[in-house]
Amino acid sequence: MQHNLFLYNTLTRRKELFKPINPGHVGMYVCGPTVYGDAHLGHARPAITFDLVFRYLRHLGYKVRYVRNITDVGHLEHDADEGEDKIAKKARLEQLEPMEVAQYYTNRFNKAMEQLNVLPPSIEPHATGHIIEQEALVRQIMDNGYAYESNGSVYFDVVKYNEDHRYGILSGRNLEDVHDASRELDGVGEKRHQVDFALWKKAQPEHIMRWPSPWSEGFPGWHCECTAMGRKYLGQKFDIHGGGMDLVFPHHECEIAQAVASQGEPMVNYWMHNNMITIAGKKMGKSYNNFITLDQFFTGSHPLLEQPYSPMTIRFFILQAQYRSTVDFSNEALQASKKGFDRLMDAMAQLSRIEPTTGGALTEAYAEEVAAKCYEAMDDDFNSPIVISHLFDCARTINQLADKSQTITPQGLEALTQTLHTFVFDILGLKSEAEGGNAEREQAYAKAIDLLLDLRAQAKAAKDWATSDKIRNELAALGFEVKDTKEGATWKLNK
Ligand SMILES: [Zn+2]
Fold first, then answer.
1. Where does 22-274 sit in CATH, by number?
2. Of the candidates 135, 133, 129, which has an alpha carbon nearest to the alpha carbon of residue 213?
3. pLDDT tens across 326-349, in order?
């Protein structure tokens, strides 16, 4: 099937037809976590959004190299920590080695991602493992005249750059706006202009994480790592760069400036940004201290949570919104997502028990229609909520097939099963959370119930009402609803 995949490019502010640089291959870089604390719901969103992109591109047959970095050093930003290196600060507080802290939270992040069924990226480079590449980037920018050394630190000359190129191309800001908005205290007296940003910082005596450089013992500025590692693993020009919308400025704006200043041309063709998770209308984030960690969701151990929410409920909740719209957290919304997810999984479980009929009303054409609608939604900037609404329609049909008010041919059933498996499991990345999440095991249980119902049918035929009632009542007590139809008994488990 020929696909015209359209994706929204933040750079051009419109949906564009996706054309990879090298036919059949896609290079994608996504800004990963800063590992100084547990992942919260706000981290789950980019991870799941770009997992959906990764899965869909792979499904379309592309060979995708997906790079997602680990920021384990020098994440300086102007927030409550006043520019202090967050990892070093945490290390001092807990009397641990900085790398011990980084490793601990990296492990926990990866475990949470596995629980959310987020596929690991192809390469997960660490900023601390790429200091040499970052220093080379700084040197290139200096050689081209867009950076200067000051007191052992190196700054990007935003004003000089803006004379030759445009700083603000991604965020749509112009230099005056940026200048007025910039209240950064860091580097005051060293920088030529308030808007200049650090490429290399000289380490203060108390700073633990430091590396030698031609300028000073210090550490790279935060924006350097993504430019240096993106270029190292994906080349001077690659297809997609993604991240949360909060990274558009300054992080991604600075990345573009660094790329152009070092190699003379931009590095990225499509910039993709997911919107934020809000809580009572405010962005959920560590800096706002209003976040709920993923572990707290999974265990229900946060005062704002009325109950635990499973990883698949969280994943489904996030996929129920198009990635460019905001998602507001509430217990009601999560409970609705749980119901929706269970409904879909019940339909998937029922699917394996449907008996097709030769000459059934539904044929392969029905499965093709479902697939076409789902592809259409995915090709329109990864519109997962529309895909889910088509799957819900399909779940209703499956219920009709299960209670035998609708029929399907054997080929139709096979095609429908394949289509649903593709979209539900492979592309949306959902999985059953029932007992071990093991489909074979579930099927074995289902067959055991079918067997009991066969025995009940035999008992009924032999007018052994005591046995027939006993099977029905005891199954009911376990939560199985048995329905007698003209074609025989059907059942479902009411959880
Ligand atoms: Zn980044």
1. 3.40.50.620
2. 135
3. 999 999 999 999 999 999 999 999
